[in-house]
Structure formats: C-alpha cells, structure tokens
Amino acid sequence: MAVDAGLIAWVEEALGPMGTVSRRAMMGGATLYLDGAIFAIVADDLLWFKADATSDAEWDAAGCPRFTFQMGKGWEGSMNYRRAPDDVYDDADAMRDWAMIAVAAGQRAPARKPRKKA
C-alpha cells in the first residue's frame, strides 16, 4: 500500500472547517481521524471511508465497494471501509458529506481494548 501525500493534504483542506485531521501509519497506508474519531484509510492512492451496518445502505446505493485485501494462499480479507465516491476527489462539499457518514460510523464503533504488555 502507498500513501498519497497530496490526497491526505486535500482531505485536510476539505475537512478543515469540520475539525482537525490527523493520521497514523498503517501497513504502508494511513489511518485518518477527525478530532480523534477514525473515519478513513488511505491505501493504494485511494480513500476508503469507515462504514458499518447502519451506513452500509448509503454506501451500497452509491456503488462504493468494500475494502478487500489478499491474505496469502488465495485468502481474501475485508475491512469495514468503503471506497470513496469519485466526486470527493474534487468537491469539498461532497468530501464533507461523505466524511460525516464515515465519522458517525467511527464514533459508533466499540472502543478498542488496550493491548496487554508482555
């Protein structure tokens, strides 16, 4: 996976009126947060928004496929993220509209338990 710095800069600019976008490295990509709430990942130069059972119908209606990856030996995995609609790449209003759906999904997600120290 690759991180497109220009794409992340665009996300930060478009979502600036909504809050602060931060990121963390993730297996060659990046996880994006808006004011601490996870809402997207950037992988292979694409933006993938957080989704859940509540928002799946909206993503399906927009034709946004799930994030999938190869796990070796022919196994395919998926994560609860949806490919961003094409209009978010050049329309700040669309970026904000879809990001709000993703932020809400991130806020609904259960908190992760801290890892136990070895």
Give a written overview of the molecule.
Helix 1 packs across helix 3. The chain has 118 residues and is an alpha+beta fold. The mean pLDDT is 91. It contains three helices and six strands, in the order H-E-E-E-E-H-E-E-H. The protein has a six-stranded antiparallel beta sheet with strand order 1-2-3-4-6-5.
Number of helices: 3
Q: Roughly how many Å apart are the termini?
A: 29 Å
Percent helix range = 25-40%
- Extended strand count: 6
Q: Sketch the major β-sheet.
A: 6 strands, antiparallel
Shape: globular
Mean of residue pLDDT?
A: 91
Alpha-beta classification? alpha+beta
Q: What is the strand content?
A: 25-35%
If you compute it from the alpha carbons, what radius of gyration comes out, rounded to the nearest whole angstrom?
A: 14 Å
Furnish the topology, listing elements before pairings.
Blueprint lengths: L4 H11 L5 E6 L2 E6 L2 E7 L2 E5 L5 H6 L4 E7 L2 E9 L8 H17 L10
Antiparallel strand pairs: 1-2, 2-3, 3-4, 4-6, 5-6
Helix pairs in contact: 1-3
Overview in brief:
The protein has 118 residues and is of the alpha+beta class. The chain has helices spanning 5-15, 56-61, 92-108; strands spanning 21-26, 29-34, 37-43, 46-50, 66-72, 75-83. The chain has three helices and six strands.
Main attributes of the structure:
about 120 residues; alpha+beta; 3 helices; 6 strands; about 30% helix
